[in-house]
Amino acid sequence: MRAAVLTAYNTPLEIRDVPDPTPGRGEVLVRVMASGVNPLDTKIRRGMAAHAKMAPPAILGIDMAGVVEAVGEQVHQVQVGDEVFGMTGGVGGIAGSLAELAAVDARLIARKPEALSMEQAAAIPLGFVTSWEGLVDRADVTAGEQVLIHGGAGGVGFLAVQLALARGAHVFATGGPASQQVIRQVGATAIDYTTSGVEEYVDEYTSGEGFDVVVDNVGGATLDASFAAVKRYTGHVVSALGWGTHSLAPLSFRGATYSGVFTLLPLLTGRGREHHGHIMSQAAALADHGGLAPRLHSTTFPLDEVNHAYEIIENATATGKVTVLPHL
């Protein structure tokens, strides 16, 4: 099969012919129809993501959608011909989705939503799993709560907004001037962080009380702002980018709580993979009921142009999630 191979950090991926994978016990062989590109993928290529534990030579690509071609022993939840999607590799030394075929752990996948194309389905897994772990597993968002999502037009934030809305929350999302229309169109109240400070939007939308749940998809100063925006006593901050050094004093002074999300853990440790498959099933159900769809970049790329796809992410010129189609 053809695959995009990382031969050395900070070099372009090389298109090579490599042996077809064989599904082992508990695995399925998937013909990859679409591979979603995440900022983490580009950081791995540059050697800037040691936590992902992916060393050259390696096939990258965390997210995928495709068709089951063969089923290994002890696999019962899917069968040959099923269209599936999931967050299945590209970290922890596991071959990723930038290839024509991938042998993946069946626990990590679910049937692709009928309402979405392969490209759309491949743009969902990492972002939705991150959002679910934060909003559902950690914060247990319920109907009527006020939820603030930082980076509401981003790859994770855009899906988080839809998930919070589906759970009945009143959703607010921050973004720059160019993101305001996108945020409003997906159903959230848009907040321009370049013109409105934390105290201002906390006063305007919560009468100074703070938001029940604050989701940080940006990190750095935005996580600090989250600590100042959360509701006193009962508020909860969730972040997928809680790295670096932060003062917990603003959070402590509000009597609020914090949780971190590290979405890669099941792939890195082998523990909790069934839960990721469950989350994918929930994503499919939500999409088929019209409550979930990704925002795609205007162009999809064949495998031969994978480095161009990565450049768009690295240069921050993507207008939505970027996908690579190995069979295009």
From TrEMBL:
<dbReference type="GO" id="GO:0016491">
    <property type="term" value="F:oxidoreductase activity"/>
</dbReference>
<dbReference type="InterPro" id="IPR011032">
    <property type="entry name" value="GroES-like_sf"/>
</dbReference>
<keyword id="KW-0808">Transferase</keyword>
<protein>
    <submittedName>
        <fullName>Phenolphthiocerol synthesis polyketide synthase type I Pks15/1</fullName>
        <ecNumber>2.3.1.41</ecNumber>
    </submittedName>
</protein>
<dbReference type="Pfam" id="PF08240">
    <property type="entry name" value="ADH_N"/>
</dbReference>
<keyword id="KW-0012">Acyltransferase</keyword>
<dbReference type="Pfam" id="PF13602">
    <property type="entry name" value="ADH_zinc_N_2"/>
</dbReference>
<dbReference type="GO" id="GO:0004315">
    <property type="term" value="F:3-oxoacyl-[acyl-carrier-protein] synthase activity"/>
</dbReference>
<keyword id="KW-0521">NADP</keyword>
<feature type="domain" description="Enoyl reductase (ER)">
    <location>
        <begin position="10"/>
        <end position="324"/>
    </location>
</feature>
<dbReference type="InterPro" id="IPR036291">
    <property type="entry name" value="NAD(P)-bd_dom_sf"/>
</dbReference>
<dbReference type="InterPro" id="IPR020843">
    <property type="entry name" value="ER"/>
</dbReference>
<dbReference type="InterPro" id="IPR051603">
    <property type="entry name" value="Zinc-ADH_QOR/CCCR"/>
</dbReference>
<dbReference type="InterPro" id="IPR013154">
    <property type="entry name" value="ADH-like_N"/>
</dbReference>
